[in-house]
Amino acid sequence: MSLLTKTGTVTIAINTALSGPICLGSGVLCAIKMSAGWDAAALTFQVSDDGGTTWDELRDSSGTAITVASPTAAYRLELDASDFKSAVFLKVRSGTSASPVNQTGAARVLTLISRKFYPVS
């Protein structure tokens, strides 16, 4: 493990589309290592501002859901860390809120990679 990054995992259970929660602490999500058996679907995210009681769709300032359109199985995907700078408690969804995509065949484990956020001024 790097001193500059931290990893954690979330699992999307078989025949479901939403992972359990993860606490990123002071880290900011910057990459995801996809499960080798990933069923094709976009990724979207939910965040909680109250420690995991209430969950909201993670959206940008224009109201558009933060989306990874076409993640590839077994790939490490770089993300724009600024999209996740306010996320402490996070869930990952297969598909979108309007069209979730259940992961079939097996549970899917995603490795989330976070780092300290350094804004550019």
Provide a descriptive summary of the structure in words:
The protein has no helices and nine strands. Strand 4 (43-48) and strand 5 form a beta hairpin. Strands 2, 4, 5, 6 and 8 form a five-stranded antiparallel sheet that branches. 25% of the residues are buried. It is mostly beta strands and 121 residues long. The chain has strands spanning 5-12, 22-23, 28-33, 43-48, 56-57, 67-68, 76-78, 89-94, 108-115.
Task: Please describe the structure with a list of short key phrases separated by commas or semicolons.
mainly beta, five-stranded antiparallel sheet, 9 strands, 121 residues, globular
Condensed summary:
This protein is an all-beta fold and 121 residues long. Helix content is 0%, strand content 36%.
Main beta-sheet strand count, sense and barrel state: 5 strands, antiparallel
Overall form? globular
Radius of gyration: 14 Å
Which stretches are low in confidence, meaning pLDDT under 50 for 5 or more residues running? none
Number of helices: 0
Strand fraction band? 35-45%
The SS-based structural class is mainly beta
Order of helices and strands: EEEEEEEEE
SSE blueprint:
Layout (H helix, E strand, L loop, with lengths): L4 E8 L9 E2 L4 E6 L9 E6 L7 E2 L9 E2 L7 E3 L10 E6 L13 E8 L6
Antiparallel strand pairs: 1-9, 2-8, 3-7, 3-9, 4-5, 4-6, 4-8
